[in-house]
């Protein structure tokens, strides 16, 4: 009996030890499992993916900016429109390698869409890069070539040819240059037909001149035909590039990654909660078990502190990276929306503001006014004092005219010596004319640059749109009306402003004919033809 009792007691102790060991192994396994699940997601992966996406967005924005510079001809040297592609391909490959970690079909679909958008955009940019250089060369060649040809026919060549032909050719060349530059800004079939007719007239007058002059005429004709052929094609390619949707695809991919990583991080946080709860249970068990389990309690505390420190470090690094990328994005956005010489908004930003202004005018039944300004005499400043002085004149015009506008008004530079004023909520036609007089007076007040006397003025075309009817006509029509009115001002003697006959007002507080006549009388003393 004693032996049996001893055996039973020994077996009971061994069984309790076995159960305790199994319980410790089970609890340890649960603890290890929870720890692995909380540490399974590398916080650096999301940070790296977000940085790659931000860099890809930046490179895509720089790509768009280079295309815009190539279109406007503002680049000091020929641009390599494919310079960003190797890095963009590398970033796309890295993002593709990260996709399996997300386990999310949304991010994978967005990545596929981005690949298609970037491949299409790359092909379109390659076509753009082939067509842009000859167009830019033709646009740079044509104005000086026409001026040189006019000089030739006004000299010995003009003396040898019949006077009527010389006069006619001079007028034809002026019309060719004007219509070609207009076509470059806003190409249309009617304008192309008009230019083709003018080119035929130029070619028909070659018989009266020497071979040297004929060669120059042929060069002018060739440049004009290049502009006729390339400008619509380049505009079409730009529209297709804008419609490629790489920016939207990038936004979708970023949202897809955010969604997938948020889900993974949410699971990580959930297992952290489980870990903390399980740690609390273990702490109770450790208290119950005594000294033998205190080491396990310390290990759990160390694990918790490490996880918390890792979280704090990750949040700080993400915040710092996000702030840097936001600053870079704001800088890129400003460069894409402003003229680098004057600091004024550019054509792209002007069209955005005009579109919003027309939408507000439609809701409020208010008037939006557009003033197209072309400087008179600016070419003489460039020719006699140099382009540096010309740049100073443009900066002075921007400062002085901008100082006379309201805070809610906008002044833009379209390029060269062309500016546009955008006014909203104009109460009457006379109010718009007061702004035009102020702008004209400020421009005419520029009489000296670097100690040299200059004489400049401006021809201003005024167009306006009211309410729903104005919004229906659209921004392109409003710009065209202001442009036509500006050309009418030039043709009527320069140094003055002309209101478009299509202008719409809330009320005619004074007849338009009287306003125009009064404006002409006000400008008679300072509106002598110049330039």
Tags for this entry?
single chain, disordered C terminus, 531 residues, alpha+beta, 17 helices, 74% helix
Write structural notes for this entry:
The protein contains 17 helices and seven strands. With 531 residues, the chain is α+β, with helices and mostly antiparallel strands. Among the domains are: 107 residues; 176 residues, Alpha-Beta Plaits (2-Layer Sandwich), CATH 3.30.70.
Task: Summarize the helices and strands and which ones pair or pack.
Layout: H1 2-38, H2 43-72, H3 85-102, H4 105-154, H5 156-160, H6 163-185, H7 189-204, H8 211-242, H9 246-289, H10 294-337, H11 347-364, E1 367-376, H12 378-385, H13 387-403, E2 410-415, E3 418-423, H14 429-444, E4 448-449, E5 452-453, E6 457-466, H15 467-473, H16 475-491, E7 497-499, H17 512-522
Parallel strand pairs: 6-7
Antiparallel strand pairs: 1-3, 1-6, 2-3, 4-5
Helix pairs in contact: 1-9, 2-3, 2-9, 2-10, 3-4, 4-6, 4-8, 4-9, 6-7, 6-8, 7-8, 9-10, 11-15, 12-13, 13-14
- Please give the radius of gyration in angstroms: 36 Å
Shape: elongated
CATH second-level architecture of the domain at 347-522: 2-Layer Sandwich
| CA(first)-CA(last) distance | 131 Å
Question: Helicity range of the residues?
Answer: over 70%
Characterize the biggest β-sheet: 5 strands, mixed
Strand content: 5-15%
Give the rounded overall mean pLDDT: 82
| Beta-strand segment tally | 7
CATH top-level class of the domain at 347-522: Alpha Beta
The named CATH superfamily of the domain at 347-522: Reverse transcriptase/Diguanylate cyclase domain
Class by SSE composition: alpha+beta
Helices, by number, come to 17
Strands across the major sheet, in which order? 2-3-1-6-7
Element string (H = helix, E = strand):
HHHHHHHHHHHEHHEEHEEEHHEH
CATH topology of the domain at 347-522: Alpha-Beta Plaits
Identify low-pLDDT runs.
508-531
């Amino acid at each position: 009996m004693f032996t049996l009792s001893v055996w039973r007691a020994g077996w009971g102790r061994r069984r309790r030890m076995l159960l305790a060991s199994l319980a410790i192994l089970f609890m340890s396994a649960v603890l290890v499992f929870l720890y692995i699940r909380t540490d399974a997601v590398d916080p650096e992966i999301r940070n790296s993916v977000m940085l790659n996406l931000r860099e890809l967005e930046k490179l895509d924005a720089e790509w768009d900016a280079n295309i815009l510079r190539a279109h406007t001809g503002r680049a000091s040297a020929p641009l390599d429109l494919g310079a960003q592609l190797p890095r963009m391909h590398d970033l796309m490959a890295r993002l593709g390698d990260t996709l399996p970690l997300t386990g999310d079909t949304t991010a994978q679909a967005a990545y596929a869409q981005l690949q298609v958008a970037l491949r299409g955009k790359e092909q379109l940019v390659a076509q753009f890069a082939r067509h842009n250089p000859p167009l830019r060369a033709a646009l740079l060649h044509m104005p000086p070539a026409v001026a040189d040809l006019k000089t030739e026919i006004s000299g010995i060549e003009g003396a040898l040819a019949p006077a009527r032909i010389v006069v006619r050719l001079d007028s034809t060349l002026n019309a060719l240059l004007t219509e070609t530059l207009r076509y470059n800004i806003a190409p249309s079939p009617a304008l192309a037909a008009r230019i083709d007719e003018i080119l035929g007239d130029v070619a028909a007058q070659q018989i009266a001149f020497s071979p040297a002059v004929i060669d120059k005429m042929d060069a002018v004709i060739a440049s004009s035909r290049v502009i006729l052929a390339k400008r619509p094609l380049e505009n079409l390619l730009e529209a297709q590039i804008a419609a490629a949707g790489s920016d939207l695809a990038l936004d979708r991919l970023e949202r897809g990654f955010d969604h997938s990583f948020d889900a993974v991080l949410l699971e990580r946080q959930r297992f952290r909660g489980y870990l903390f709860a399980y740690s609390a249970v273990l702490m109770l068990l450790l208290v119950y078990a005594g000294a033998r389990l205190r080491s396990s309690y310390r290990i759990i505390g160390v694990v918790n502190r490490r996880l918390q420190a890792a979280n704090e470090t990750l949040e700080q690094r993400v915040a710092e990276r996000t702030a840097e990328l936001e600053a870079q994005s704001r800088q890129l956005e400003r460069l894409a929306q402003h003229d680098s010489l004057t600091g004024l908004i550019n054509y792209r930003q002007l069209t955005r503001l005009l579109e919003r202004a027309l939408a507000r005018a439609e809701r409020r039944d208010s008037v939006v006014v557009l003033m197209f300004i072309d400087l008179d005499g600016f070419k003489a400043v460039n020719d006699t004092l140099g382009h540096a002085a010309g740049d100073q004149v443009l900066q002075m015009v921007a400062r002085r005219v901008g100082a006379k506008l309201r805070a809610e008004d906008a002044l833009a530079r379209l390029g060269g010596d062309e500016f546009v004023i955008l006014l909203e909520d104009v109460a009457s036609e006379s109010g718009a004319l007061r702004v035009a007089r102020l702008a004209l007076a400020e421009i005419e007040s520029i009489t000296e640059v670097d100690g040299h006397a200059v004489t400049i003025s401006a021809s201003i075309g005024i167009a306006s749109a009211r309410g729903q009817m104005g919004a229906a006509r659209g921004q392109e029509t409003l710009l065209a009306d202001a442009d036509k009115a500006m050309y009418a001002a030039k043709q009527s003697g320069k140094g003055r402003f002309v209101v478009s006959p299509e202008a719409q007002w809330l009320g005619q507080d004074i007849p338009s004919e009287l306003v125009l006549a009064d404006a002409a009388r006000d400008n008679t003393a300072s509106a002598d033809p110049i330039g």
